[in-house]
Write a structure and sequence with these properties.
about 675 residues, Immunoglobulin-like, eight-stranded parallel β-barrel, 15 helices, binds calcium ion
């Protein structure tokens, strides 16, 4: 080859490389972007747009006057800069305009979508909106503070859907189905009973966990009069609120402002707020922002090269890939900083890798170490991520200050979640005592728990009680009341109410972080529906009339919450403390659990506390340490001043009830 031909060939090769997209062997070879300015950086002088997508052929920015429909008012070709980022700066004030990006790959223009980092969107989240985030701050936002929280052991969570709290025609709430509805105070039922915010405040919970409130896919925001309902576990835009909960989905600033207003109002009322986050999958698969802009990258692939599906929703994200991990960390930080969010509940956390979850809590620690993180320590299907890397329940000890839901105690109390007729501890089935005891010690190591007899775990999985979320019901599956009705059809309502209260007493006296499904304190029913994720408001909403129908149950739950809040013995902070101060008593009956919280456990003013759960239909008698005991809780009520005294060495506990005694 002549020297000239050789040089020409080299130059031609270089030209080819520069004109086409770069070709990478694998997603892992993509260059990474370290900056924190992906998406839009707005000022009145300029808008800077950046989209990371190393392997596509071209990227366009389109500007619109509307959030939906119409033709672009401007189309701009973006330029590939460093680290796989497409960039364009427009030196004008674009406030109020909408925008979308379009990537070209394999010679085809893909769908127009907002970027994954988008912070404000128009109707149905189809386009980003250029807004000034500062203008979304409600009055007094700068002074907004997280309510005091001494430790995670003090947390009592109330799990609530934004719509459910207000949609009942008798809720007395004006902004039905909206963020602002939960921010209304002074609301009452026709009978004059408080509803909504006032009810929750009066109940005494410390945190409200809102079901998905980021922008999700399933509800058509352009047809709100159709009143479609969805839980929202189908994310579309992770970093901005859901439009159907706002009073105007078209104006991207409104949903941001109204969600902030809700958070501020809850804070002003002493209640912290938790966002339910669903980074494990996206609502759309092929059509998601992630996939339209960076084909394939943000997802795990199965052996055939298609989307793997550990979420059972069509795809699973790849938190173990650097730019997905970065996205999750920045997204959580966005909610914590921009919205003052106080906690995060990770849906199907087992799909995420341990390193990512630890990076998230580490990032949150820098903002405020009292921000609580917990999740579902399981997946909904198999994943290519190796088990040892998954943030599953069995790996909780490898997670830094991340808690997991205890399905062990949940099903120990009421029965296997998918075997609807199954009875359990509160409904009189023997054999679940160790599962309940496992929950009482919050899944930690305790010398008196027989781990080989626990329903789902054969070893402790929490390194501290603060890593266990103790619950019996949540939005998923039957409500506690419906479950008891299905599994105990032969029992009277009166007997099932006893079981219901006993279940509440176990949850609220057990160690760990307490978690209540909204409405459980009013015997919530969904008419027996197991999976109401897209059922009607009639099925899902909180029926405030029940507050008047079951005042005894409500008072009981309020009493339990007050008892827990008033006595640190129920909220011990370490495994060692639980080992030292919690002692189970010998009992000779099935379905009977008794334990002492002794020696002023965790600084409690009571020297000794005796807790007994009797899941049998009949009364049971057991030996107790002698002394003068004050009864503070029975199956009917709680009274810290005492419901009577017992000076005997034996205690008789009525059927299907809990007792707490103190000295
Ligand atoms: Ca939406």
């Amino acid at each position: 080859m002549s020297r000239l031909l050789y040089l020409t060939t080299i130059l031609l090769f270089m030209w080819t490389c520069q004109s086409g997209p770069k070709v990478y062997e694998s997603f892992e070879d993509y260059p990474l972007y370290e900056g924190t300015d992906l998406g839009l950086t707005y000022s009145p002088q300029a808008s800077i747009f950046k989209v990371w997508s190393p392997a596509v052929e071209a990227m366009q920015l389109k500007l619109y006057e509307q959030g939906l429909g119409g033709d672009p008012i401007r189309e701009e070709t973006m330029k590939m800069g460093d680290d796989g980022v497409w960039e364009i700066t427009i030196n004008e004030d674009l406030k109020g305009k909408y925008y979308a990006f379009q990537a070209k790959s394999d010679g085809n223009w893909r769908d127009e979508v907002p970027d994954p980092y988008v912070k404000a969107v128009g109707t149905n989240g189809r386009r980003g909106m250029i807004i000034d985030m500062e203008s979304t701050n409600p009055e007094g936002w700068e002074a907004d503070k997280r309510p005091a929280l001494a430790g995670f052991n003090d947390i009592i969570i109330y799990e609530l859907h934004v719509r459910d709290v207000s949609m009942d025609p008798n809720s007395g709430i004006e902004n039905k189905g909206k963020f602002l509805g939960l921010a209304e105070s002074g609301t009452k039922t026709p009978d004059g009973l408080s509803t909504g915010l006032d009810h929750i405040k009066d109940l005494g919970v410390t945190h409200v966990h809102l079901l998905p409130s980021y922008d999700y896919l399933s509800v058509d925001e352009s047809k709100l009069e159709e009143n479609n309902y969805n839980w929202g576990y189908d994310p579309q835009n992770y970093n901005t609120p859901e439009g159907s909960y706002s009073t105007n989905p078209e104006d991207g600033a409104v949903r941001v402002r109204e969600f902030k207003q809700l958070i501020k109002t809850l804070h002003d009322n002493g209640i912290r707020v938790i966002l339910d986050v669903v980074y494990n999958h996206t609502g759309a698969t092929e059509g998601s922002n992630f996939n339209q802009l960076v084909p394939g990258y943000y997802y795990r692939q199965n052996e055939e090269g298609g989307f793997s599906d550990a979420s059972a929703c069509g795809n699973e994200t790849a938190s173990d890939r650097a730019m997905m991990r970065k996205f999750m960390i920045e997204s959580v930080k966005h909610w914590a900083e921009e919205y003052h969010m106080d906690g995060f509940r990770f849906d199907l956390m087992g799909i995420h890798d341990i390193e990512t979850m630890n990076a998230i809590t580490s990032a949150l620690d820098e903002i405020d170490p009292s921000i609580f993180v917990y999740g579902e320590g399981w997946t909904a299907g198999s994943s290519p991520l190796p088990d040892e890397n998954k943030a599953i329940k069995a790996n909780t000890t490898k997670l830094d200050r991340v808690a997991a839901f205890s399905d062990d105690i949940r099903d120990g109390i009421k029965g296997h979640v998918f075997t609807h007729e199954a009875k359990a501890f509160v409904s009189g089935l023997a054999g679940l005592e160790e599962s309940v005891k496992f929950g009482v010690v919050a899944s930690t190591q305790h010398p008196q728990v027989q781990y080989d007899s626990v329903n789902y775990s054969n070893a402790p999985w929490a390194k501290s009680p603060l890593q266990t979320v103790t619950y019996v019901s949540c939005h998923d599956n039957h409500t506690l009341w419906d479950r008891l009705a299905i599994s105990c059809p032969e029992e009277s309502e009166e007997e099932r109410i006893k079981m219901h209260k006993l279940a509440g007493a176990i949850v609220l006296t057990a160690q760990g972080v307490s978690f209540l499904h909204a409405g459980v304190e009013m015997i919530r029913t969904k008419g027996g529906e197991e999976n109401s994720y897209k059922s009607s408001d009639e099925v899902n909403r909180i029926d405030w009339a029940r507050k008047g129908q079951y005042p005894g149950v409500l008072d009981y739950f309020k009493g339990l919450i007050a008892l827990r809040k008033g006595h640190p013995a129920f909220r011990m902070t370490s495994t060692e403390m639980v080992q030292q101060y919690l002692e189970f008593l010998e009992v000779s009956d099935n379905n009977l659990i008794a334990y002492q919280l002794k020696d002023n456990a965790n600084g409690d003013e009571w020297t000794n506390i005796l807790v007994v759960y009797n899941g049998n239909a009949e009364y049971k008698t057991l030996d107790i340490p002698t002394g003068n005991w004050k009864v503070v809780l029975d199956g009917e009520r709680m009274n810290e001043e005492g419901l009577g005294t017992i000076a005997a060495s034996q205690l008789t506990v009525p059927g299907r009830s809990a007792m707490v005694l103190a000295q």
